[in-house]
Amino acid sequence: MTSPRFRIGTRGSPLALWQANRVRDDLIAAHGLAPEAVEIVTIKTTGDAIQDRPLSEAGGKGLFVKEIDEALLDRRVDLAVHSAKDLPTELAPGTALSATLERADVRDALIGGSARTLKELPAGAIVGTASLRRGALVRRLRPDLEVVSFRGNVQTRLDKLGRGEAHATLLALAGLTRLGLQGHATEILDVDDFPPALGQGAIAVTAREDDDATREALRALDHAATAAALACERSFLAVLDGSCRTPIAGLARAEEGRLRFLGLVLSIDGARTVEGAIEGDAADAARLGAELGRDVKARTPADLLAAFG
Ligand SMILES: NCc1[nH]cc(CCC(=O)O)c1CC(=O)O
Question: In which pathway does it act (predicted)?
């Protein structure tokens, strides 16, 4: 048995494994590799272990990548696959974003019961979500609903809904679709009403910064328009988000070399939004995102900014 050429580090959730397998298949197809040349290594992260309190209190989303970065830097794996929206804006030193796969549908879906849409939910109905962004957007559209915290992976949340812990929940359509669970969606929310999380729907692959062979192999998987959109969204987030305690949303789209980006910050109760838009050359994606970030930050009231911590 020869040792695998590429070992992929991933979390063990069904969604993470689907995404890692997608990268594995793409690598095999792009380079005509034997199936055994690419191995998937499941890594348990602190974030997976914490189920009893909000992650924003436990230390934020970096908790899902720390152990994977360690495996990468210790050479136990050669690349790591992440949902782009869960990847902290600051990558671990020595690691680099090396490919961004073509983005899937960026929209959120409502999974309702007898009420199938956000509009149809009766006053006082309970919406379960752990996302500050989704909570704020729900409250903005429907201040008469009650938002409760809902954590766990996609299946766990569907199970909680099934047990009646809420009347509806919200999940990314991309994740539902990857798991074959899109049939649970009872409404797909328009991005104008319900802008996605930065990075939503995109899969990001990191590698050791100095591993030229792996990074070169990953170049074949990179989707330029998605990479530009993600660079823009991540630099917006880097300017605004110190602590992930502030609801932030936005969406960049690159087409024929032009990039259009809309980004916003919300108050927790959804009553106030500060938003902006910017357009420019897709080659300047990161600079455009940072510029809009500074503009939005300058216009954001101090009490919202206080949540940046
Ligand atoms: N935070 C969990 C997470 N990270 C990425 C996705 C969905 C897939 C994607 O956005 O690419 C999900 C689940 C969800 O928010 O419904």
Answer: Porphyrin-containing compound metabolism; protoporphyrin-IX biosynthesis; coproporphyrinogen-III from 5-aminolevulinate: step 2/4
| CATH number of residue 75's parent domain | 3.40.190.10
Give the residues surrounding ligand 1 with Cβ less than 6 Å away: 83, 85-86, 154, 171-172, 174-175, 200-201
Same domain, 97 and 207: yes
Strands (E) located in the chain:
6-10, 38-42, 79-83, 95-100, 108-111, 126-128, 146-148, 168-172, 187-188, 203-208, 248-255, 258-266, 273-281
Tell me how far the alpha carbon of residue 255 lies from the centroid of ligand 1, in angstroms. 24
- ipTM (interface pTM): 0.97
113-153, pLDDT tens digit by residue? Answer: 989 999 999 999 999 999 999 999 999 999 999 999 988 88
157 Cα nearest atom in ligand 1:
16
CA distance 220 to 279: 27
Atom of ligand 1 lying closest to residue 61 CA? 1
Type of residue found at 50: I
Residue span of the structural domain in which 229 resides: 223-309
Note the pTM of the prediction, 2 decimals. 0.94
